Every structure is written in structure tokens, then in C-alpha cells.
Amino acid sequence: MKRLFLVMFLVLTTLSLSACTQKNFSFAEVDNVPKKVKEAINPDERLQVINRSGKIYYIVFQSQEDVKASLETVDTTALVKLDEVDAKDNDVRQYVYSLTMDQEHDTIEIQVNDESMAYPVTIID
After folding, report:
1. How many domains does the chain have?
2. Residue 3 lies in a domain
3. Is Signal given among the entry's keywords (predicted)?
4. Is the alpha carbon torsion for 45, 60, 72, 121 positive or negative?
5. Which domain holds residue 102?
6. What is the per-residue pLDDT across 99-123, written as a single tens digit (0 to 9) for each?
7. Which one, of 92, 82, 1, 10, lies nearest residue 45 by Cα?
8. Which of 1, 15, 23, 73 is the most exposed place for a label (fewest CB within 10 A)?
């Protein structure tokens, strides 16, 4: 009985520890932008990053072109690539992406059309 208890304890401990170390690294376009993020967006900035809750970053990019977004990793850097493609019209469109960082990544680099871009960061709660 003690042996069974010990085995079950070890299995549960192992499962709990593996759940704690699961990766939460993700990237996706946001359809419904949270209200606080909308309020923090500066319409005069072509590219900006809004940080919420420490691990969640909203990348806001404005362009007259259609945008194809992708995420790559280079060592501990999250590399966000925004590539402008043919425009459907001349109106400026706002693209908002959510990037959730994990413990393995500590830097965000954003490239627009293969060129690294500087960006302002706004922190909200």
C-alpha cells in the first residue's frame, strides 16, 4: 500500500511539474482588441508595442498594404516578420497581433519587409 501511494505521488508530482513548464509562446492576429489596448494605441505611430500583464504584447502596425505576419525564433529572440504585399485600396488599415512570451524568449525583434524596426513600447495594466 505504501509502495502504491509512493508511486502515485511520484507520478502526480511529475505531471504537475511538466504542466508548470509548458510553453505559452504564441502569436496571432487579434480580431477583438481589448478596450485598454485600443485606448493606448497612438494613431500617429506606424508601429508600436503595447505590453499588458508582462507576458502579453500587442503589436500594432498601420499600413496601406495588405500585411502577412509570421513568427520565428532565433535563440532567445522572438522575431516578428511583417511583410507588406499588394494593396487592395489606399486606405490605411490597422493590424493588431498578440504575442505571448514564454520563459525561453526575452527579446522581441520586429522586421517590416525584412528590415528591423524600432518601436515605442506602452505599458498598461
Report:
1. 1
2. no
3. yes
4. positive
5. 24-124
6. 999 999 999 999 999 999 999 999 9
7. 92
8. 1
